[in-house]
Amino acid sequence: MRHPKYRIGLVDSVHHSCREGLEAAGFEVVEIHHLNDNDTRKAIRNVDGIVVRSRFPFDRQFMQENQHLQCIGRWGSGLENIDLDAAADHGIAVVNAPEGNRQAVAEHALLLLLSLLRYMPRIDQDVRRGVWKREANRGVELSGKTVGIIGYGNTGSAFAKVLSGFDVEILAYDKYRSGFSDDIVQEVPLNDVLQRADIVSLHLPQTAETKHYVNEEWLSMLQKPIYLLNTARGNLIEPNTLLNALERKQIIGAGLDVLPFESSSFERVDHSARLESFLKHPNIVFSPHIAGWTHEANKKMAHWLVKRMTSVLKNK
Q1: Domains, in order of start, for the chain
Q2: Which of 20, 267, 276, 296 is the catalytic position?
Q3: Which pLDDT score, from 0 to 100, does residue 1 have?
């Protein structure tokens, strides 16, 4: 069934298969991501649906000004830049594609973890400088450790599956899900995660509830030093709390794909003294918010977004 009456605007640059899929479903697709923000907002008035990433906030004012929209498709999983209540108030459907990059995020979390345990960034730089140290770089095995996963949605469950071949005990806590224990993971209360885990990985959305989720109160529940991973959103961790915990060796090392210093578009970081303190710390491994950025994830996100937008619009 074709739906030629609908026009879809690509507000952000996305994989070409997204456009191809929408056109194959019968929609007219217009690329407006090359326009400046002001002209992009004007162009949105002439389309029925939009595909977005994190270019600018889609807040209540935006929804009021664009009540004609039938659907907003969020490339990826995070919805923090979209006012979902306002969209619902104006009858605008919002869909996303969290399945698309879950495997990529899970594999990247494992990369950060193994890099921490085996000091990979430091070793690589040593060898490049002609420094050949063996005993000083004796690492730690993942096997035999207890891994705690906080947030057991798409990426949390994918991370558990990736870990399942490493002879580790996997604990998981999710405030809004239950009954997911299986032969890979054991569902436990948060206290159990923080008391038993050697490694804690965050897989939470960014909401008012999760901002600065890792704070001094959270740290006070730890029963032993841990490695901390964050491939979700930078604001889940209070910056000074992490730096202080690293100095106290309460956190042995941190693998961070995201930082609290990122712009709302995630395309840059705002430089400050606190950022410099992070960047100079020897026990943090960084990547630039690319955990979900693989060629395969790009195609999978297009597939899921096209599927969900088509499902919404064909029933309008």
Answers
A1: 7-98+296-314 (3.40.50.720), 102-286 (3.40.50.720)
A2: 267
A3: 47
